Amino acid sequence: MSNASFRVMLLLLDIIDFFYPHVARRAKRFGITEGMIVVDYGCGPGRYTVNFAALAGEGGEVYALDIHDLAIDTVRKRIARRKLRNVHPILIEGYNSTLSDETADVVCAIDMFFIIKNSAAFLAEIKRIVKRNGILVIDDGHQPRSVTKQKISDSGLWDIFEETSDHLKCRVR
Question: How far apart are CA 156 and CA 77, in angstroms?
Fold first, then answer.
């Protein structure tokens, strides 16, 4: 995504969030609790990141990962304004998160799975970084649910254990 496109997207999301503040309500349904380590994979401008930080609390941590430098800059500004000490923005390249094995209690991949070109590699990286009893929360973004479920199934790495109209929750096989 070009820098100009990112800035337009950011403006539109800010307008949407102002008139329809659904992100905080939605984030609460992901099962994040005090003390958890959360990865916001494809964090974009950090709309969910700040909510995840509040849910994880001071005893938890949030890693905000994105491939776009403007996304990481925007997250840094948001966490500085809110004085959040439990958020760690990380600029990544490709599907390499740079996180250690079995880091996360929860990995959230929100509104981004539809743009992933190699879903098998992406899902393998998430499996690597999630704890053995951790979960993946993923939504469809701009693709049909059937496509999302097929990609997850084809990976052979994840079992869907909860499905809502909003998202899927998955565990490592």
Answer: 38
